[in-house]
Amino acid sequence: MMRSKADEEEYWHSSKFKAFTFEDEDDELSRLKESKQAVNSIRQLVEEDDDDDDDDTEKVSWSGEPVGSISWSIKEMAGSNQKIDREPAFPRIPTEPSTLNKSHSGLSLSSLFRGKAKSENFQSFSDAFSDSVRIYAPELRKPKSEYKDYVCDWSPEETVQRLLQGKAVSLEKFRSLQDKLLLLDFAVAAHDGNVITAVLIYLKRSLRKEVLFRELQSRQTALRHFIHYLTESREQKLLLELLRALGRTEDMALLQYKEHLSITDENNKRDFLKSCLSLPFSAEDSAHVQDHYTLLERQIIVEAADRQAERGGKVEIYQRFPRKASILNMPLITTLYYCCFYHYGEPEGTFSSPLNVRRTFKISEKQYFVTALAARAKLKAWSDVDALFTGRNWLGFTRKKSPLSFHRVVDVLQRNSAPTQVLQDYVALIDDAELRISLAQKLKCHDIVISTFRDMKDRQMLVAYRGKVEPGSAPERKIDDLLNNQQIRWKN
C-alpha cells in the first residue's frame, strides 16, 4: 500500500528517524547525545528483564571497555561511519509496521545481553560459549602438577628421582655430554637396574658409539648393564664392537662362537667352526673349539657311511638294531657309545673306530671303559665284556681288573639282564664281604653266599641260609657237605 506524500511528510516529522539528505552535516555532539540515549534505553531494558539476578554486573565490550561509556560510544559511532562510507547506496528502511513490532522478534535486546533467548528455537551466544567451555572444562581443570613434568627444567638428579617414582619424564632435553653423563652417574648411584637401562638406551640413541664405549670403560656397573641389555636384545653386532673396543678379545671370540647355535645345516656349521679356529680364544677354549670342529667333521663322515650301509641292508647289526637317530651334532660320549655299539671291532685307523675316537679326543680310561661296557652289555656281547676286564700282570698271568668298582659293574650288567653265571663271576670280585653277601643274596648267587660264609667260618649264618634255599637243590647239598666237614674249624 503506497503512502501519500502528506503521510510521508507526517511520518518523517513525527518519527525519531530522519530522511537522508546530502545537505545534512552530522553534528558530532548530537550523535554522542543520541548514542548516550540509546545506551540508557538499552540499560533500562536489561534492568527490567533481569528479575532473578540481584547483583549489579558491569557489562563490558569485547575490547574490555564498559558498555555505555563515552569512549565506547565514540568507537561505535566511528565504526558506523566507516560502514556508511563503505556503502554508498541509500539505506532501505522498511516501513511495514509488522517489521517494527517487538512482539514478533525471537530475541530481545535484554536477552542478547543476558545470553537468554525468548524462543526455544534459537541458541544464544552465551549458551554456545558455555557449551564450548564445558567441552574443554576437564582439560582446564587439570592440576598444575600434571603439567609440571613437561614444562619444568628438571636437573639430572631430579629426573632420576622421578624415574624411580615411576613418573614419565623426557630425557631428550639433556643435550650436552656433561648432562648425559651426570644422568648416567645418578642412575648408577640409585642402584636401580630399570633406571640404568632406560638411561643407557637414551645414550645409545643419542651418542656416537666411540664416545659411549669410552665413557662406559670407567663405569663398570653401567657397562655390565649395557652388555646384559645388548645380549638380551640380541644386538650381536654392537656387542661385538663394544667388546672389541674394550679389548676383551676372549669374550668377543666366545660370543662369535655362540653363533653356531643358530646354524642348522651341518656343512655350514662345520665351515663356521673352522673359521672360528682363528679367533683369539684362551688356550683352554681354543682346544674345545678345535675338538668341536673335529668331532662334527667326523660325525658327518660316519653318518654318511652308516646311512648308506643301512640302506644297503647287508650289515647284520643294522638289521638287528636299526638306528633310531642321526649321530650328527651329538655329544662326544654319545658318539663314542655309538661307535662302541656299531663299530666295536674296527681297526684303529678308521674314523668310526672307538679306539680312534678315544685317542683323538683324549678320553680317559675310566670314561672309555664305562661307555664300552654299557654298549657291549646292551648288545649282550658277554665275551667283549669279559675282554674289557682281562689284563696281565708283570709275571704274565691274566687277571681281571677294572677302573670301576665291581659292585658298579654288577649294577650295569644286572640292568642289561646279564645271566646269573656272568653276574656271579663279578660279584665274587667285590672286596667288601658284607656288600658281596648282600648283592649275592639279591641276585640269588647262592654259591657266592655259601663260599663267603665258609671263608668267614660262620656256622650259624650258614645254617640260617640253608633254610632260604630250595629243599633238595644243589645249594642245599653243598651246605650239608660243609656242615658235615670235620676239618673246618667253625668259630661258633
From TrEMBL:
<keyword id="KW-0967">Endosome</keyword>
<feature type="compositionally biased region" description="Acidic residues">
    <location>
        <begin position="47"/>
        <end position="57"/>
    </location>
</feature>
<dbReference type="InterPro" id="IPR040057">
    <property type="entry name" value="Spe-39"/>
</dbReference>
<dbReference type="InterPro" id="IPR038132">
    <property type="entry name" value="Vps16_C_sf"/>
</dbReference>
<dbReference type="GO" id="GO:0005769">
    <property type="term" value="C:early endosome"/>
</dbReference>
<dbReference type="GO" id="GO:0005770">
    <property type="term" value="C:late endosome"/>
</dbReference>
<feature type="region of interest" description="Disordered">
    <location>
        <begin position="42"/>
        <end position="66"/>
    </location>
</feature>
<feature type="region of interest" description="Disordered">
    <location>
        <begin position="78"/>
        <end position="106"/>
    </location>
</feature>
<protein>
    <recommendedName>
        <fullName>Spermatogenesis-defective protein 39 homolog</fullName>
    </recommendedName>
</protein>
<feature type="compositionally biased region" description="Polar residues">
    <location>
        <begin position="96"/>
        <end position="106"/>
    </location>
</feature>
<keyword id="KW-0968">Cytoplasmic vesicle</keyword>
